[in-house]
C-alpha cells in the first residue's frame, strides 16, 4: 500500500506499508518504508512518541528549534520559532535569508562572525545573543545556540541543529542596570568634597576660591557639594537689626 506524507519541511515523502506474518499466517506487524528506509510500525510509534515528548519539553522551556541543510540551503524551524516573533509557520520562508533580515543591524556582524568561526571548525558550538525584529516592529533578544552535526569528507558542514531562547526580560534588566550604574557614576563624579584650609573673610564671610576670587559662602558650598540653601534670620540678628519692629516685652 502506498501513501504520501508531508514532512515538517513541506516535502512530500512516499510511504510504503507491508504486512508481516508469522509461520501460521498470523499478522505480526506492519512495516513501513520511508523512501529507502525500513521502519517497523512499533519503531515509528516510538519515534513519534519521542518527538512529541521532546517538543513538549522544549515548549515548556520556551525553546524553539531550527535545522539547516547546507547542501540545499533549506532551514526547517519549529512552530515556536515563528511564534516567538509573532509570526506563524506559514509566514516564514524555508531559507536562512529571512532570518538574516530579522537580525538587528548592530548585531549582524557579530552573528555572522560567530557562525563563520563554527562553520570553519574554529569553535565547538555556535552561540550568540542578538536582537531580532518582532512582527509588530519591536525587538526581542534571543540566545541563538547551534552545532554542526554532520560534515562531508572535506570537512564542510552538511547539517546543523540549534535552538532559540527568548532572553528579552533578562537582557533588558541587564541593560537597565548598566544605565543605572552609568548615571550613578556620573552623579558621583560631580560630587566634590570640601577639605583642607579654606580662606574665608572674617567680616563678610566670603570665601576665596581656587582661582583667587572671593565669592559668597552659599555659592562656594553649592559648587563643591550637593547642599542647597534657604535663607532666614537667627534670633540674635533679628534683635540686632530689626529691634524696632519687635513687640514690646
What does this molecule look like?
The protein is about 35% helix and about 30% strand. The chain has three domains: about 1-60, no CATH class; about 60-170, PAS domain (Beta-Lactamase, 2-Layer Sandwich), CATH 3.30.450; about 195-245, no CATH class. The longest helix is centred in the last third of the chain and has 23 residues, at about 170-190. The protein is of the alpha+beta class and about 250 residues long. The chain has a five-stranded antiparallel β-sheet with strand order 6-5-9-8-7, with helices on both faces. Strands 1-2-3-4 form a four-stranded antiparallel β-sheet. Strands 10-11 form a two-stranded antiparallel ribbon. The chain contains seven helices and eleven strands. The termini are far apart. Residues about 1-10 and about 30-40 have low confidence and may be disordered.
The CATH homology group name of the largest domain? PAS domain
The total domain count is: 3
What is the averaged pLDDT score? Answer: 77
CATH architecture of the largest domain: 2-Layer Sandwich
Low-confidence stretches: 1-9, 31-39
Q: Span between N and C termini?
A: 120 Å
The major beta sheet can be summarized as: 5 strands, antiparallel
Describe the strand arrangement of the main beta sheet, using strand numbers.
Answer: 6-5-9-8-7
Helical segment tally?
7
Order of helical and strand elements: EEEEHEEHHHEEEHEEHH
Give the C-alpha Rg.
37 Å
Q: CATH first level of the largest domain: which class?
A: Alpha Beta
Given helix and strand content, the structural type is alpha+beta
The geometry reads as elongated
The helical percent reads 25-40%
Count the strands? 11
Would you tell me which CATH topology of the largest domain applies?
Beta-Lactamase
Amino acid at each position: 500500500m502506498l501513501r504520501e506524507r508531508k514532512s515538517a519541511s513541506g516535502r512530500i515523502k512516499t510511504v510504503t506499508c507491508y504486512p508481516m506474518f508469522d509461520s501460521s499466517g498470523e499478522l505480526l506487524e506492519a512495516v513501513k518504508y520511508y523512501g529507502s528506509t525500513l521502519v517497523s510500525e512499533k519503531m515509528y510509534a516510538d519515534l513519534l512518541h519521542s518527538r512529541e515528548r521532546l517538543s513538549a519539553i522544549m515548549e515548556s522551556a520556551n525553546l524553539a528549534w531550527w535545522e539547516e541543510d547546507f547542501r540545499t540551503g533549506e532551514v526547517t524551524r519549529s512552530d515556536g520559532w515563528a511564534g516567538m516573533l509573532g509570526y506563524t509557520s506559514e509566514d516564514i520562508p524555508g531559507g536562512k535569508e529571512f532570518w538574516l533580515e530579522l537580525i538587528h543591524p548592530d548585531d549582524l556582524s557579530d552573528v555572522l562572525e560567530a557562525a563563520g568561526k563554527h562553520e570553519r571548525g574554529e569553535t565547538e558550538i555556535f552561540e550568540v545573543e542578538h536582537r531580532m525584529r518582532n512582527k509588530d516592529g519591536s525587538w526581542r533578544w534571543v540566545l541563538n545556540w547551534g552545532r554542526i552535526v554532520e560534515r562531508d569528507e572535506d570537512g564542510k558542514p552538511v547539517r546543523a541543529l540549534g535552538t532559540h531562547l527568548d532572553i528579552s526580560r533578562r537582557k533588558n534588566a541587564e541593560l537597565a542596570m548598566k544605565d543605572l550604574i552609568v548615571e550613578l557614576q556620573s552623579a558621583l563624579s560631580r560630587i566634590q568634597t570640601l577639605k583642607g584650609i579654606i580662606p574665608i573673610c572674617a567680616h563678610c564671610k566670603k570665601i576665596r576660591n581656587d582661582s583667587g576670587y572671593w565669592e559668597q559662602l552659599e555659592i562656594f558650598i553649592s559648587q563643591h557639594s550637593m547642599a542647597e540653601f534657604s535663607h532666614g534670620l537667627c534670633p540674635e540678628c533679628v534683635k540686632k537689626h530689626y529691634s524696632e519692629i519687635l513687640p514690646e516685652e
